[in-house]
Amino acid sequence: MLQRSCVEHLDELNFHAPWLKDENLTTRIAQLHAAPSLREIAIFDQLDGKFPARSEVLEEASKRARERVRALETLASYCEELAGMDFSFLFDKARNLFAIGFNVTEGRRDLSFYDLLASEARLCSYLAIAEGQVPQDHWFLAWPVTGRSRRRTDPGFVERIDVRILMPCW
Q: ∠ at Cα 101 (106, 120), nearest 5°?
């Protein structure tokens, strides 16, 4: 397993840095960039005068790097789209609370609500407020200044620690 992983990484390194097999090119590139990024490799073929002659190896490396950068930019764009969560459809403005879910079949919010922020609803509230999807006073109405939730049962272990991992406690 480790050997296979090492071979795969070496193959990828040779794919993106094929000049490593040419000692002269390796030395020349090391003088320009100790550890070039993909963006820097992508313009190697445009650095006239920096290398003794136009190198097919560098042209190919630049082409591969540009393709990889485009693929990574596309992936980053998809991630940004997926990261945009909208919680507002779960928020009941009259109660100033989040519904526990949404019934897709019936096209409506569930009839039960979180009346506390000591569970995963706390994180949802925090993110929704940060995104401007719900008013800031929701935090104080759902989580009284006393710091105690209105919950009648003891929260489970995960409900007590999940939010504290991601946000500070004062």
A: 175
